[in-house]
């Protein structure tokens, strides 16, 4: 039955999520056996898919030494204005290992300091309102991920969008380079669009 579950997410999204079995986290949280999880829970929500992406992004990013997560330490993901994604991500982290989990979620408000943050996720519309946070993130080599139109032109590195009823993402290599981040070729291959120069 696991194959039918992964069929809920087609194309690149499915390939990205199947390896870590990210979808099974939702099944475990509900106390359901994996073999009938699809029938019980139905397709995953957008917030679950976005959270699953966020939970794995750190495996495909190389930070400069000054900003890198400590060896065998947690990647701290700061989230602004996306409580649904924060909730899903917190649940996934707890299922993996509540004590030694590989990610930690920190809920932030616009304008909060970004101390010890490795990934900053801005909810819909915050790419415009949180311009100062994006600039601060770039100066600290923090990976900025968004879900807003035109966010890449405002300094975001990765932006989620709905394409053919699937959650996809675009990448700005210029923003990544400005922040001193290196993205793996595997991540670039999964992107719907890779922008090498900022849109005018």
From TrEMBL:
Q: Which InterPro entries match?
A: YfiR/HmsC-like
**Superkingdom, natural source:** Bacteria
Name of this chain's protein: YfiR family protein
């Amino acid at each position: 039955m696991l194959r039918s579950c992964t069929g809920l997410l087609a194309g690149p999204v499915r390939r990205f999520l199947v390896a870590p079995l990210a979808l099974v986290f939702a099944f475990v949280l509900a106390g359901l056996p994996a073999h009938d999880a699809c029938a019980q829970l139905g397709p995953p929500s957008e917030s679950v898919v976005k959270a699953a992406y966020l939970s794995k992004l750190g495996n495909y990013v190389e930070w400069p030494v000054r900003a890198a997560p400590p060896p065998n330490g947690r990647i701290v993901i700061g989230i602004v204005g996306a409580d649904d994604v924060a909730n899903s991500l917190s649940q996934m982290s707890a299922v993996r290992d509540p004590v030694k989990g590989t990610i930690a979620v920190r809920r932030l408000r616009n304008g909060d300091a970004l101390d010890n943050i490795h990934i900053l996720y801005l909810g819909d519309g915050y790419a415009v309102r949180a311009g100062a946070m994006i600039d601060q993130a770039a100066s600290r080599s923090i990976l900025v991920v968004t879900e807003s139109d035109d966010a890449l032109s405002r300094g975001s590195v990765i932006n989620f969008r709905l394409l053919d009823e699937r959650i996809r993402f675009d990448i700005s290599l210029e923003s990544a380079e400005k922040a001193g981040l290196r993205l793996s070729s595997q991540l670039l291959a999964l992107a719907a669009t890779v922008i090498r120069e900022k849109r005018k």
